[in-house]
Design goal:
The chain is mostly helical. It has ten helices and five strands, in the order βββααααααββαααα.
C-alpha cells in the first residue's frame, strides 16, 4: 500500500483544476554548439534555420549586445551629415590604390572562406560517420512486454536506439508519480504519491541502459581521427575570423570582403543574422563610421 508523499490544501474555488501526472518529459537530444547550417549545405547535421526574413524587431545578439536590422539601418543613417559626402566618395573609389589599402584584409577574407568551407565539409563527414554505425544489439529490440511496462518510443522504431527513448529506462525515471484531486464544499486537496517500479521493470531497464551505453560508445573506424581534424579546422576558421573582425576596412572592397565572410559562415547565403554574420555587421558599421570621420576631418 502506497502512502501519500504530500497533500496540498486550498480554499474552495469554483474554477476547475487541470491535473497532470508528474512523470515529466523524456529528456532532450543534445544540441550542437556550432551555428545553424542552411539547406544549401546538403547533408548538414544541424537543423535548418528559418528561411523567412526576420522581423526588424528581432534582436541580433553579439558580444552581449542586442541590435536589430532597424538598428543597423539607423546606424548607417546616423552618420554625421558633414561626413556623408566624403564617406560616400571614399566607398565608391574602387581603384588600384584603394584596393591596396585593404590588401591584408582581402587576403584574410580569402583564407577564411576556404577555411570555413573546409570545416563545414568535415562537420558533415563526421556526422555521416556517426550515423553509419553497426546495427543495435538484439537486446535493444523493442518487445511487446516493454510497452506493457509503460514504456513507449517517441517514434515508430524497431530498437531502443534513441537517447531520448533511453532516458525513460534510466533508474531516475522508472518510478511513477500520480496525483488526484479531492474537493468538498470548503476544501480542495491535491494528493500526489510515488509508485515504486516493479522488479521486472528495474531489471529490463538496467539491461537496456547497459546495452545502449556500450553500443553508443562504439564509433566507426576513423571517427576519432576525423573529429580531431574537424576541431582543428574549426580553430583555424575562428582565429581567422577574429583577425578579420580586428582589421578595419578602409574601402568598399574591404567591406564586401567582410560580407563574403558572413556568407561563408552561413553556408553560402545569409538567411539569419547571428554568430559571425552579426559580428561582421557590427564591424562594418564601425568601419563606415570611421570612414565618415576620416572624410570629415
Amino acid at each position: 500500500m502506497t502512502k501519500a508523499d504530500c497533500v496540498f490544501t486550498t480554499p474552495p474555488t469554483s474554477t476547475s483544476a487541470i491535473l497532470e501526472d508528474g512523470t515529466g518529459a523524456h529528456g532532450a537530444a543534445e544540441l550542437s554548439t556550432r551555428p545553424l547550417i542552411p539547406a544549401s549545405r546538403a547533408g548538414a547535421c544541424q537543423p535548418v534555420g528559418n528561411q523567412r526574413e526576420p522581423s526588424a524587431a528581432l534582436p541580433i545578439q553579439s558580444f552581449g549586445a542586442a541590435i536589430s536590422r532597424r538598428f543597423f539601418v539607423r546606424s548607417l543613417a546616423s552618420l554625421p551629415v558633414a561626413a556623408a559626402t566624403p564617406a560616400a566618395a571614399s566607398l565608391m573609389q574602387v581603384t588600384d590604390e584603394s584596393h591596396a589599402a585593404d590588401t591584408q584584409l582581402l587576403a584574410l577574407a580569402d583564407e577564411y572562406v576556404v577555411a570555413e568551407w573546409h570545416y563545414l565539409d568535415l562537420l558533415i563527414a563526421v556526422d555521416q560517420m556517426s550515423e553509419h554505425r553497426e546495427a543495435p544489439p538484439e537486446v535493444l529490440k523493442i518487445r511487446p512486454r516493454d510497452l506493457e511496462l509503460g514504456r513507449k518510443p517517441e517514434q515508430n522504431a524497431e530498437f531502443w536506439a534513441s537517447p531520448c527513448d533511453i532516458m525513460q529506462w534510466r533508474p531516475a525515471r522508472l518510478a511513477e508519480w500520480r496525483m488526484e484531486k479531492k474537493e468538498t464544499d470548503d476544501r480542495l486537496e491535491l494528493v500526489q504519491w510515488k509508485i515504486e517500479p516493479s522488479e521486472e521493470l528495474c531489471e529490463r531497464g538496467a539491461e537496456i541502459v547497459a546495452a545502449f551505453d556500450e553500443w553508443n560508445s562504439r564509433k566507426p573506424r576513423g571517427y576519432t581521427k576525423a573529429k580531431r581534424k574537424m576541431k582543428r579546422a574549426l580553430r583555424v576558421a575562428e582565429q581567422l575570423e577574429e583577425q578579420i573582425l580586428n582589421t578595419p576596412a578602409k574601402t568598399l572592397e574591404g567591406l564586401k570582403a567582410k560580407i563574403r565572410c558572413a556568407e561563408a559562415w552561413s553556408g553560402g547565403k545569409i538567411n539569419s543574422i547571428d554568430g559571425c554574420a552579426a559580428d561582421m555587421i557590427l564591424s562594418i558599421i564601425e568601419d563606415i563610421e570611421d570612414m565618415g570621420a576620416v572624410g570629415a576631418s
